[in-house]
Amino acid sequence: MQAVPQHRTTRRVRRWVLAGAVALLAPVAAFALDRGDPAPDFTLQGPAGTVRLADLQGKLVLVDFWASWCGPCKQSFPWMNEMQARYRDRGLRIVGVNVDRRATDADRFLERIPAGFTLAFDAAGEVPRQYGVKAMPTSVLVGPDGRVLEIHSGFSDDERAAREQKIRQSLPPP
């Protein structure tokens, strides 16, 4: 039996690994959202009871996926509190979907940085998978018609004005 050169074996293994990775990622790509797509409906539990996206039809909804270990989430919460307070009367609803596996982690975060908006918990991570979330935080702005207006990953102070502008433009006139 003749030995296969090492470089051929390495290339063959790399191709198998790459093909496997592409096959694994293919289902994820099918769930990714684009602007104009209908936002997947969800029903989750929160501290104030059941949270259903469908119940917010007719409102501008910012669905924000967050976790206790997420550094930028610590910056985004005060901004979202401010946006909810400023634009609630014009129809903005913010829903923060926590993805921590342990509720105590989320509770500790919320003790330090309270939320002035609706909270829901998804320890199984089903809703973030439906939305194609790949980073924390990720927010999805959903129009009153239930369609995706904007998808944004991450959070930094220099984005605040542009993100608020998008919210203002998407709300009905005062």
UniProtKB/TrEMBL annotation:
Classification via CDD domains: TlpA_like_family
InterPro entries in the record: AhpC/TSA, Thioredoxin-like_sf, Thioredoxin_CS, Thioredoxin_domain, Thioredoxin_ResA/DsbE_sf
PROSITE patterns named in the record: THIOREDOXIN_1 (PS00194), THIOREDOXIN_2 (PS51352)
Span of domain Thioredoxin: 33-172
Keywords for the protein's UniProt record, in alphabetical order: Redox-active center, Signal
Pfam families listed in its UniProt record: AhpC-TSA
UniProt name for this protein: TlpA family protein disulfide reductase
Species: Caenimonas aquaedulcis
